[in-house]
Amino acid sequence: MKFSRRTKVGAAVACAASFALIATGCSSAGTGTSAGASPVELTVTTFGTMGMDALYAQYEASHPGITIKANNIDTGANAQTDAFTKIAAGSGLSDVLAVEEGWLGAIQNVSSQFTDLKAYGADSVKDRWVSWKVAQATDKDGRIIGYGTDIGPEGICYNSKAFAAAGLPTDRAAVATLLGGSGSTWDKYFAVGEQYQKATGKAWFDQSGFIWNSMVNQLPEGYYTKDGKLNVENNADLKSAWTKLAAANAAGLSAKQTQWDWNKGTSFTDGTFATFMCPGWMLGVVQGQVKTAGGDAVGATAGWDFADVFPGGAANWGGSFLTVPTQSKHPKEAAELATWLTDAKQEVAEFQTAGAFPSVTAAQTDPALAAGTGISAFFNDAPLASILSKRADGVKAQYKGPDDSTIQEKVFGPSTISLDQGVSGDKAWSDAMTLFNQLIVNK
Amino acid sequence: MQKATMTLTREPELSSPPRPDRTGRKSALTYKHRLSRLDVKLSPYLYISPFFVLFGVVGLFPLVYTFVVSLNKWNLLSGPGEWVGFDNYAAELNDPLFWNSLFNTMSIFLLSSIPQLIAATFIAAVLDQNLRAKTFWRMSVLIPYVVTPVAVALIFSNMFSEQNGMINHLLSFVGVDPVMWKTDVFPSHIAIASMVNWRWTGYNALILLAAMQSVPRDIHESAALDGAGFFRRFFSITLPSIRPTMIFVIITATIGGLQIFTEPRLYDATTPTPGGAHRQFQTTVLYLWEMAFQRQNFGKASAVAFILFIIIVAFGVLNFLISQRIATTDSRTDVKSAKRVLRRKAAADREEALAASTAGLPVDSPPSSTLPSGAKEPRS
């Protein structure tokens, strides 16, 4: 083993040395010729399904001399690790970097490492977004460090075949009414779930983690108070939501799935669970999972549909921003690309390919958004755009502190899995509080 | 007499006449002489310096830097904070999550190293026989080593899947309930250890095979002539002869085992905490990686890295001491057994003589009595 490490180090050193030679060679050549309109290569790093892939070629065609090298990371958590590592290293970040709302708080702590887009015309375009999206991307010195891509208004994805099997209505308007319509609550949602579970013996939702995410995101104040103080222990809202979730688990409503795996997508096709938390960007994930499992990703044969209802009222989960790190050698071109990618027309296209609901107001009301798309066809031709617009109504931006994603993933993550595995709500909560003190309070 | 005269005659010859001559030669050769002296004295260091320069840059500097970082409050993104001395170390040594990671590391290490070394020795012994298509078999055991650990981890992760995994499927045929390979602590350690074993057994087997082949064949042959069977020869000749190589393999396995990262990281990549939802198989390196790049606490992560470094050094020293002890007891027993053999032989000779005298045959006593003392002499 020792040998292999040594040879690896040796190889790395050799690579680094040769790389350094090439790099210096490149940079010296670059400075010599970059005075003219030399070709610029812009790197873009996104994650999940953001629906931008087709747009790059379009931009390259309309902007001669610009080539785009895109890199997409599978999940937001992996993209976060990737970005943090490169910020710490001081190099390696893309010219345009997608940042998720959950870890934007940590990024805001080092906002000086991101270009103030006001230098590249942010003031003239900032009115295109819903105002809370711009507020999230503005740092404490008033610099705008990111342009909003999507927001995550949540609706309920449900499997109409599973509903039919349980004798429940399958029509999406009727499902919305069944779950309580505009006055829907978590109690109502879980009550219908118990009804379903009794009728079929099957689970109601996939796993507890996403339910918990939704419950927390919908509160006016989540893990932090509005003025940035930790707000976890003795937070009655959190505790009561936890109690409800624990009771639902005790009633057997959870399918105990592994999130982001779902038995390699199979659980979406074999009726393992009947409902699923769906922010706009998750619609593309559902389609992708069905495709992975070998299901029909185009037609509606998988049985998935999308209802205009959400327990506990309007909720937003996730949503991203495009930033330009100061590491970028071409901040001007990168900012231009970010401006273009978040323009109304492009955000409509992103919605049509991936279901990422636009944060730009003009795009939200664009008639093209309502037109049927590939992803609508998958959801039984549901009018996704108009449903999501309604779901976005009343969403309030929640303050996300620097450790928000750590609390979400590492403090409550293990405990929501415990709930799935049958641990009592009280035990799981106290485990979470122990972790909270270990990881956050006494860090 | 001869010696004395020689020194007497040499003495004046050496001392008086050549002195001026020598100094003259010295001044004539000064530059070249100095250059060649310099060449002899300095060049070897120059030749080996690239290693030390590289080591300084990529080995020593990071080591020292890590130590400095570990003495600070240091956020991954915002950089150094205040100087806290050894507080990070104290905090880590009181952190149950750190001890959990150390327990997991040790458990996986023991589960992987012990079966792996036994299996590798056995495979090497088999390959050491006169097989047909020798090279084919030898290359075959090395194939798992060629596969990158990432691929190994992905394949094994699928095989050990709890819901539709191959292993649980096979177990169901023999009536065993599905094992929670990723949820339970011990099964997950076994699964990860099996990845390590799969990848490293063949590699270690080849190293041990090379050692076995350097054991002189005539020892084996003479033992065989004396009636020693395969197992007797294996335990009494092969194993003692390959002991230095064995120690090398054990030390490298220890270092690798304590630094295990890729396998537990990718074994269940879907969980929010690396190394299992409840850190069931989070090893120390994984813990320090999470601390640095996810929890963003660079200071504490560096402290963990340094503690791990000390642990590995301690293991190395322990291995060294044990191996030295083995070596010394080894030579002691050699001497002892040799004496024992000679004593037995002497006793037997005496008995023989006694029996011969009683039978009234001519006694050949002098040689039998001198044999033990004569044989002993060169040894003492």
Automatic annotation (TrEMBL), chain A:
The lineage of its organism: Bacteria, Bacillati, Actinomycetota, Actinomycetes, Micrococcales. This is ABC transporter substrate-binding protein. It comes from the Bacteria. InterPro entries: Bact_solute-bd_prot1, SBP. It comes from Cryobacterium breve. The keyword Signal applies. The keyword Signal applies. Residues 1-29 form the signal peptide. Keywords: Signal. PROSITE patterns: PROKAR_LIPOPROTEIN.
